[in-house]
């Protein structure tokens, strides 16, 4: 069957077509407008979604080489995310499903970041149940015990800032443009991870705290810049490498705790920060070091995309789990 996935939870408008586990098209329109504000402006995001959604869906259908009349269902992100952004995708998807007379499927964005692992990718195998998912993104940091496709339990999470937010806020302090996470990663690859030391906050064994890290980067940079005004530009690689090393080893510490507590050694990562080269390498190393089986998504299925919405749509379609016509978007949707 052919299923169209639509994602509009934050600042990316995305559409994808899936056919029996294989992605036929995966289109994302990024919104450049937010860069000048140093963060996502919700009102501008929903306006851009309104402009982008029709062309993005057309392009997804064209690239998949199918007509909309061939679709079997429409899957869309119903939350969590920015309300104004979610509303655009929700109302568009409802109208399209109604117009075509096909089922509508609501998808939880955070579940989709995890279930993206079930997209068929050459040379990769999907995780076996039960597995632990580390979801690391702009808005979330979670360790999830996944027993089946729709049986998931959050066993650890951020008590303040999300990890992607920590990357972006630290990057902002360093004068890097938004979103700074990928830039920190790029600089980190040229630097010495042991050059500077940042603290790893102590919280419950499976929980995370990142707001202190941002503050310590701020104080550190202020102190050093007072002595040498060019401190940041002269040391950007080492600062980024040290920062990334701290974050990655903190994430790995928590994963080790979760493995110890659950006895599960099958690990999958998801969310935008799983594009990070440091966490990817640390996970690969953990296969040999600790005997884990690790699953790292393809780059384009890490950050926000509609392919992950389409795969959840297909999994739900096969089980006959559909949304009612009165389904609503929910900014704080849980699972
Ligand atoms: P959520 O999924 O929680 O609703 P979101 O959808 O905004 O949040 P994603 O698109 O999944 O988040 O991820 C975006 C985040 O990933 C940003 O904070 C960005 O800086 C970060 N990110 C992307 N690539 C990298 C990288 N290579 N290294 C570090 N962070 C990265
Ligand atoms: Fe996301």
From TrEMBL:
It comes from the Bacteria. This is tRNA N6-adenosine threonylcarbamoyltransferase. CDD domains: ASKHA_NBD_TsaD_bac. One of its GO terms (biological process) is tRNA threonylcarbamoyladenosine modification. Required for the formation of a threonylcarbamoyl group on adenosine at position 37 (t(6)A37) in tRNAs that read codons beginning with adenine. Is involved in the transfer of the threonylcarbamoyl moiety of threonylcarbamoyl-AMP (TC-AMP) to the N6 group of A37, together with TsaE and TsaB. TsaD likely plays a direct catalytic role in this reaction. Binds 1 Fe(2+) ion per subunit. Belongs to the KAE1 / TsaD family. It is found in: Cytoplasm. Its EC number is 2.3.1.234.
């Amino acid at each position: 069957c052919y299923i169209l996935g639509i994602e509009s939870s934050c600042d990316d408008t995305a559409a994808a077509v899936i056919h029996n586990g294989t992605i036929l098209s995966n289109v994302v329109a990024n919104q450049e407008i937010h860069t000048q504000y140093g963060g996502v402006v919700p009102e501008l995001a929903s306006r851009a979604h309104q402009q982008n959604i029709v062309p993005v869906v057309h392009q997804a259908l064209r690239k998949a080489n199918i007509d909309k009349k061939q679709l079997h269902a429409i899957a869309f992100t119903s939350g969590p995310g920015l309300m104004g952004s979610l509303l655009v995708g929700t109302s568009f998807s409802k109208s399209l499903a109604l117009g075509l007379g096909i089922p509508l499927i609501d998808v939880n964005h955070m579940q989709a970041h995890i279930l993206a692992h079930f997209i068929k990718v050459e040379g990769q195998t999907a995780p076996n149940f039960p597995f632990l998912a580390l979801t690391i993104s702009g808005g979330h940091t979670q360790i999830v015990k996944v027993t089946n496709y729709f049986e998931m339990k959050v066993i650890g999470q951020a008590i303040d800032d999300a990890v992607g937010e920590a990357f972006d806020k630290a990057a902002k302090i360093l004068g890097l443009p938004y979103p700074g996470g990928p830039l920190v990663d790029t600089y980190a690859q040229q630097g010495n991870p042991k050059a500077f030391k940042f603290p790893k906050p102590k919280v419950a064994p499976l929980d995370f705290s990142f707001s202190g890290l941002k503050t310590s980067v701020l104080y550190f940079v202020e102190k050093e810049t007072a002595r040498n005004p060019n401190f940041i530009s002269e040391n950007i690689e080492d600062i980024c490498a040290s920062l990334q090393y701290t974050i990655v080893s903190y994430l790995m510490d928590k994963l080790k705790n979760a493995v110890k507590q659950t006895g599960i050694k099958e690990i999958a990562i998801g969310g935008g920060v799983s594009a990070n080269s440091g966490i990817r390498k640390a996970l690969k190393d953990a296969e040999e070091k600790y005997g884990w089986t690790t699953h790292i998504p393809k780059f384009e299925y890490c950050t926000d995309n509609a392919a992950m919405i389409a795969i959840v749509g297909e999994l739900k379609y096969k089980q006959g789990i559909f949304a009612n016509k009165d389904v609503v978007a929910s900014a704080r949707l849980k699972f």
